[in-house]
Design brief:
By secondary structure, the chain is of the alpha/beta class. The chain folds into 3 domains: about 80 residues, 434 Repressor (Amino-terminal Domain); about 130 residues, Rossmann fold; about 120 residues, Rossmann fold (3-Layer(aba) Sandwich). It contains 14 helices and 14 strands. It is elongated, with a radius of gyration of 26 Å. About 35% of the residues are buried.
């Protein structure tokens, strides 16, 4: 026997959208009739449970579980004036340790969204591929969400026009865009942890410091390098060196020998671990001869030899702030301070 077309359609729908009984959608009036309560009581059971008697609420929710009923998100959005959906622009071009760190940011965001009963819409984009850029532009224009969170914002980002056309609030997470002053930013105070690392090196008796790694196209990397350039001379005078990008071991060895470096700030943990490997090949003992510190507290930092001292970003607090800004519950952007994680390479 051929299956009727409506049964096929019902298989593709999610019970969270309307609720189904034997393949048919059920509106709130029909569910209220079956539950023998008013439609107002049904609405309160899901959205204002404190306004119902416990036995009435449990009766409604038990029947909803039995029938697979859930209030229509479209109707709820129309009534409340918002969709309870936050959009996240996810950069597919990030790789390696940066991708792992981005996943930690996503986990922190998801934790906060679950706590606030909000849904997450992910808009993936690889800025190296025109096809994904075009898809992201369409998603930004037609998606029903309350605000967008732009992870790792880039200067002159190709998605800026589409985000502006969406007419939704935009929050920049892990950076800011001077070209869009109306967009709120949630970021780390780069000068704060750089200054703290320089002070710790100075207190440890270090004389010459190197800033190692970092890509110019990454705004937060550029901010770290700029903060080092402004703060390091106050602690070490002219005995400061910057070796950006992905230096080779030969380049690293030349700087270490000519400048007699005894302290290294890695742009991130991956850069710091690379510097430690180069030091090992040059027979420079860490931390006896050279002290090293990184940023981000990735998993490998705790298990390196010796364990890498680093700084940890308060991702849960930063994610919560980004969501509050996106929903208008907070008006002012803010910077966060990183926490020092002492291990063997710098105490």
């Amino acid at each position: 026997m051929e299956m009727p077309h409506w049964a096929c359609v019902s298989e593709w729908r999610t019970p969270r959208v309307l609720g189904y009984v034997s393949g048919f959608s059920m509106n709130i009036q029909e569910f209220a009739r079956r539950a023998e309560v008013s439609t107002a009581s049904v609405s309160r059971a899901f959205h204002e449970p404190e306004k119902l008697r416990p036995d009435t609420r449990e009766h409604i929710l038990a029947l909803a579980r039995e029938l697979g009923y859930y209030p229509s998100p479209s109707g709820r959005a129309l009534k409340r004036g918002r969709h309870d959906v936050i959009g996240l622009v996810w950069p597919l071009e990030v790789e390696g340790a940066e991708a792992v760190f981005a996943q930690r940011i996503l986990a922190a965001l998801s934790k906060n969204l679950v706590a606030n009963d909000l849904d997450l819409l992910v808009c993936p984009v690889d800025r190296r591929e025109e096809a994904t850029i075009a898809h992201a532009r369409r998603t930004l224009q037609r998606s029903r969400c309350d605000a967008w969170i732009l992870l790792y914002p880039r200067h002159h980002d190709v998605l800026i026009p589409a985000l502006l056309e969406s007419r939704k609030p935009v929050v920049c997470l892990m950076g800011k865009l001077p070209a869009c002053p109306d967009w709120k930013g949630v970021q780390l105070n780069q000068a704060g942890w750089i200054a703290d690392a320089l002070r710790r090196f100075k207190d440890s008796g270090c004389k010459r410091v190197l800033f190692f790694g970092g890509r110019a196209e990454e705004p937060d990397h550029a901010d770290r390098r700029r903060a080092f350039g402004e703060l390091a001379p106050a602690c070490f005078g002219a005995e400061t060196t910057v070796l950006p990008g992905s230096p080779t071991q030969v380049e690293f060895a030349g700087v270490m020998r000519s400048r007699r470096i005894d302290a290294i700030i890695g742009n991130d943990d991956r850069s710091a671990l690379t510097a430690m490997a180069f030091c090992r090949d040059l027979k420079l003992s860490v931390p006896a001869k050279v002290k090293v510190v990184g940023m981000d507290d990735i998993a490998e930092a705790a298990f390196s030899h010796p364990p890498l001292s680093t700084y940890r970003q308060p991702l849960d607090d930063m994610a919560a702030c980004a969501v509050d800004l996106a929903l208008g519950r907070r008006k002012q952007a803010r910077s966060f301070e990183a926490a020092f994680v002492p291990r063997a390479t710098l105490v």
